Amino acid sequence: MTTTQSDNFDHTPAADILISALRQEINRHIIGHQDLIEDLIAALLAGGHVLLEGVPGLGKTMLARVVAETISLDFSRIQCTPDLMPADIIGTRIVMQQEHGARQFEFQPGPLFTELLLADEVNRATPKTQSALLEAMEERQVTVGLEQHKLAETFTVFATQNPIEMEGTYPLPEAQLDRFMVKLTAQFPSAQALATIVDRETIGSKAKVETILQANMLSALRKQVRDIALAQHVRDYAVSIIVATHPSETNTVADISRYVRHGASPRGLLSVVLTAKARALMQGRANVSFDDIDAAVKPALRHRLIQNFEGEAQGLNTDDLLESVLHATARPSA
Q1: Are 20 and 305 in contact (CB under 8 A)?
Q2: How many structural domains are present in the chain?
Q3: Minimal CA–CA distance to 285: which of 276, 294, 272?
Q4: Separation of alpha carbons 262 and 317, rounded Å
């Protein structure tokens, strides 16, 4: 497929070729997480923030570093701890003495001022510190005092968290969860993948990560994602899925009515559509399919359904509830 390039994207390969090279380079360094990488690339192309959940030691931090190097992005890492303060992330105003002796406040930027921010173990930070990311994630700017400070156009947050039942963690508030375009889960690798990890990490030197994209190329790809066509009947299908996640709707599925307190937000619908568009671009197609929507539903909505007491008491998996929604939602005809 021939892809229309933007002005600052001339003399580069077509989008699907670039994305294929990016996928291959990440998979060369990260073993056993092919599906996770596919979802992550889709979110990155869609311009959204990513929440990675999994027990320690599954390579979540390494994945973020590899992505930053393959796209040549400025990279900062924050290790979240209970004593981390908002100023440690955003920055603070400090008193600076001028040459003539006068003193004035100057803003000293924190690690938030980067292109790719890794907030490692974000749910070990206190709610006050977690909330410091809200404005940055939504508006790509921060307010310190009366001054607003813009962040990079490509500013993206990769946050990792341990399962919330682990000791010393604070569940993320719903408002912050909704800022993440997708929530991805790192699964334990297969035996074959574990053997490959041992061979690569214990024999010889580590392979160098090759740069595939520049920041301006990523921006151009994000613009192409938004240009992917969305037919009306495919759009209506996505809308029907969002509506079906709300227990107040009369035509919803039984599991949603019984176990869910609040369904997905309009921001969840946008996340489904944008990641579906990114998936279409990744496969070299100019339009979104029903399958693209289905593939985007769980990553985009699993953190947006709020279960009621009965659902939490039974320990239900949100993915299972979303699977019920997909089975119950008919695909409209063109």
Answers
A1: no
A2: 2
A3: 276
A4: 15
